[in-house]
Specification:
Chain B: It comes from Anaerobium acetethylicum. Chain B: Pfam families: TPR_11, TPR_8. The complex is a heterodimer of chains A (about 50) and B (about 450). With about 50 residues, chain A is an all-alpha fold. Chain A has one domain (about 10-45). Helices cover about 60% and strands about 0% of the residues of chain A. Chain A contains three helices and no strands. Chain A has helices at about 5-10, 20-25, 30-45. Chain A starts with a helix and ends with a helix. Chain B has 19 helices and two strands. Chain B has helices at about 25-45, 50-60, 65-80, 85-95, 105-110, 115-135, 140-150, 155-170, 175-185, 190-205, 210-220, 245-320, 325-340, 345-355, 360-395, 395-410, 415-425, 430-445, 450-455, and strands spanning about 220-225, 230-235. Chain B has a two-stranded antiparallel sheet. Chain B is rod-shaped, with a radius of gyration of 71 Å. Classes of the chains: A mainly alpha (about 50), B mainly alpha (about 450).
């Protein structure tokens, strides 16, 4: 049985064209490669 | 593949030959990202957009520099009606890889059609407004708004899903199913749509469906929308949903109205013009007929005049022409005169018998009288003797000819008349004989000839 209110909560407002800039700026594009780099860096520092 | 540390191209070794970094794990991450991209591509090809988007996001989480995955994710978002997320992916893609990047073309394509972009922006605003209406409990307004949005941006999957949810809430299951089918046409494995569809099937088969159908019918009769500060509620007509039938009905109604307009407005005017033309023609014809009638009357009058003149001329001509005419009379008079001069009294008398003395006047009359006095008696006597001789000889034809002349010359000669009758009788002409005998009796009653005639009548 579908609960209307619960389902409605899953719907979010769509981004408008004016929000593109902000969206791009706020997007976290950290990927596994970045995490790997961080890990490698920390390892090196620990070795030192 | 380039080294994540120094950016130089890597070899098959797990150690970067330039900076000496261990790139084994990095290589695995990149390969996994590519595998997820391939998976996303395969799903996108079969229109499993939800699945494709998920794979592509995973791919980008592993390797943000996977330009192909990012561009494809932008395309998938665009196809699902999410233009802004698509645009942001392409912008980021372009920033991460400036050269040889198809994302630049996608961005250019969107920016070149500013009107379309504005329209899509408006639809997004309206979708957000509709979502707000839903949260406020104004389902009717939300439905109206979403219909407008989806008419402008039919690929907005979120719009279709929200609309179908609203329809399910107000128990318009058929419309909900329609919206969900549209979603599944765009995104075949959309989880939300499949879940709603499953729930819809259960609801349709449920015991409340009959009551729901009745409620649907009741709710279908009204629609409400906002105009400024006013909320306008109007009755709706169900058959508007069936645009094909409504078009046919509208066309038929239009034809009927057109036919009625022609019948009541155009046809009377046409008939009137025809009537006036006919009247004009009739008037012209009547005038012509009147003219002709007058002409005919005039001609008849002329004809009558000509006929009377002709009769008068004929009468005058008859006076002069023919055997009894004046010309013939003068000719006979001349013949008689010449015969008398030649001593032929009989010929003169015969010629005189042909003349109608009443037509003669003046000198001609005097001459006639003179000749008649001189010749008639002598000729009659001579002819009687000759005719009587022929009678006695049995030459009845000659006797009849001569005695007939004598009777004409000397009407008082009873013997001539009697023997004429006897000649007729002897020649077998009983009718003329009887007629002659009757004449003798009438003209000479009591005489010997009359007695004899009476005795001979048969």
């Amino acid at each position: 049985m579908i609960d209307f209110e619960e389902e409605l909560k899953k719907f979010h407002p769509s981004l408008e064209v004016e929000d593109v800039e902000e969206t791009i700026y706020n997007q976290d594009i950290t990927d596994m490669t970045d995490i790997l780099k961080e890990m490698m860096k920390e390892l090196k520092e620990k070795k030192k | 593949m380039k080294c994540f540390n120094c950016g130089n191209v890597l070899s098959n070794s797990d150690i970067c030959k330039t900076c000496g970094e261990d790139v084994a794990l990095y290589k695995r991450i990149v390969r996994l990202s590519n595998a997820l991209y391939n998976d996303g591509l395969a799903k996108a090809k079969v229109r499993d957009l939800t699945g494709a988007a998920a794979s592509l996001r995973q791919s980008l989480k592993l390797n943000k520099n996977n330009t192909d995955a990012r561009n494809l994710l932008g395309l998938v978002n665009y196809e699902m009606g999410e233009v802004v997320p698509a645009l942001s992916e392409w912008v980021m893609s372009k920033n991460l890889q400036k050269e040889n990047n198809i994302a630049g073309n996608y961005i250019k394509a969107i920016q070149s059609n500013q009107n379309r972009l504005d329209t899509i922006n408006q639809t997004i605003k309206k979708y957000n407004q509709a979502l707000l209406y839903c949260r406020q409990g104004n389902e009717d307004l939300a439905v109206i708004q979403l219909k407008k949005v989806l008419s402008l941006n039919p690929r907005l999957i979120q719009g279709h899903l929200l609309l179908s949810l609203l329809y399910m809430k107000i128990e318009e299951y058929e419309k909900a199913a329609k919206s969900l089918n549209r979603v599944l046409k765009i995104d075949t494995a959309n989880t939300t749509a499949l879940r709603y569809m499953h729930e819809l099937e259960k609801l349709r088969k449920g015991p409340q469906s009959a009551a729901a159908a009745a409620k649907v019918k009741e709710n279908a009769n009204r629609v409400a929308y906002r105009s400024g500060n006013d909320t306008i509620i109007q009755p709706t007509v169900r058959f508007r949903e069936n645009t094909g039938l409504s078009h046919v009905i509208n066309i038929l109604i239009g034809l009927a109205v057109g036919a009625a307009v022609v019948w009541f407005l155009v046809v009377p005017g046409y008939r009137q013009s025809l009537k006036s033309e006919m009247n004009k023609a009739a008037i012209a014809t009547s005038e012509e007929v009147a003219t002709k009638t007058a002409e005919i009357a005039s001609l008849k009058e002329s004809l009558a005049t000509a006929q009377s003149e002709s009769e008068a001329a004929k009468t005058e001509l008859a006076l002069y022409a023919g055997e009894t005419g004046l010309v013939a009379a003068y000719e006979n008079l001349l013949t008689a005169s010449n015969a008398y001069d030649a001593g032929d009294d009989v010929a003169a008398a015969e010629a005189l018998t042909k003349i109608d003395a009443t037509k003669l006047t003046g000198a001609a009359k005097a001459l006639y009288d003179s000749l008649a006095a001189e010749t008639t008696a002598k000729a009659a006597k001579s002819l009687y003797a000759s005719g009587y001789a022929d009678y006695q000889k049995g030459n009845y034809a000659e006797a009849i000819t001569k005695l007939s002349k004598v009777v004409t010359m000397a009407p008082s000669d009873a013997d001539a008349l009697y023997y004429l009758g006897r000649s007729y009788q002897k020649s077998g002409d009983t009718a003329n004989a009887n007629a002659t005998f009757t004449k003798v009796i009438e003209l000479f009653p009591g005489t010997k000839q009359a007695n004899n005639a009476a005795a001979n009548i048969k």
